Each structure stands twice: as C-alpha cells, then as structure tokens.
Amino acid sequence: MPQHIAIIMDGNGRWAKKRGLPRSAGHVAGAKTFKSIARYCNKIGLKYLTVYAFSTENWKRPEDEVNAIMNLLRDYLKDAENFKDENIRVRFIGDRTPLAEDIKALMEKNENDSKNATGLTLYIAINYGGRDEIVKAVQKIVDSGVKAEEINEQLISNNLYTHGCPDPDFIIRPSGEYRLSNYLIWQSAYSEFWYSDVLWPDFTEKDLEKAINDFSNRNRRFGGI
Questions:
Q1: Is 12 part of the annotated catalytic residue set?
Q2: Rounded to an integer, what distance in angstroms lies between the CA atom of residue 40 and that of residue 42?
C-alpha cells in the first residue's frame, strides 16, 4: 500500500467529445469521479492523496472552459460542508494570487474547518506548476538571506507547497498520456508511475485497486541494489 498517491485527472475534454457534449460536461463528470475516488482512498486508509485540478498552463484554455472549471471548484468548496464527518483534511497547493477572492476565501475556510481531521490528507493542486513551485521556493530561500553553500535538497523541500508531506510513492495518469505535465517534478524523483487508457470520468475504484496491486508488486530500490 503506498503512503501517498498523486493523480493527474486527465481526459475530461475527450470524454465529453466522444459523447458529443461540451467540454464543461466532461469536467462535471470528472469532478464526480474525483469525489468518489477521494472517499475511497480515505476508506482504504491511504494517508495522502494529491490531485491535479488546474495547472498554471490551463489559463490558456478557452475562457468559458476556465470559468466552468472555476465554478466547479466553487461548488466543491461550498459542498464540502456536507462531508465534515468523513474525517478528510483538505489542503490546497499552487499560486492563489490570480484566483477570485470568493474562491480564495472558501479555500481558506475549508482548510481551517478540516485541519483537525485525522484520516486522508487531500491536496488539491489549483493554479499549480512544478517549475513555478521550485522558482518560488528558491525565491523564498534567497529572500531569507541563506548563503549559497547552505542550500541543500531538504531546504528546498521545506519551502515547497508540499512541505511537511512525504513525496508521492505512486503517480497515476489515466487517459493514455505518458508525461508529467509539470506536476510535482521535484517530488516525483523516485515515484512509481502507472498509466491507463481509461479517461478520468470513467476511472473507477476497480481501476485504482488494479493500480495499487501493480504498485505492491514492484521492487523499489531508490538507486540501490
């Protein structure tokens, strides 16, 4: 059983296109899958789950699609009130600066309301980019006055959005793509990867079980023998 699973929730637009639906319909279906998988991860005792919801590059998409995604985020944040009993701690990673003020306020409220939960810790990456994260971490270190010879891997890790969270053991990407897409590029140095042709809205608990079973049979040597 991995301790930390990270998922790239990919294929929403293609799922909608195959059905002759607008791309926004794919994001709605993908949001339902996200909720289902998050609850299942909590049920099976996973400690950490990180999901890629919106990247720094996604702003390039059509305005109506971006707005649809942000409205889905609003709905999720408002609906989170109904899931307090699930004992899931919610955290958000990424640059919040360009987000709408009401979304930022809801994010902060969700983090505060769930801070004492002891089950799954759920990280949601919003306006997140791996390279941007590293740049911001280095800027923080430089601003703090640390000397060049004092900078090491641990110091950089401590200044990332994910500080305090173990690196992902396992990264899952459905939809048939085989790339990281600027996701957790520092943290994934020794992550195991699992790919599937299943589009994210069709991803089920059985698909996750299959991935975890595959992970459990791998021999992780971390550069050793």
A1: no
A2: 5
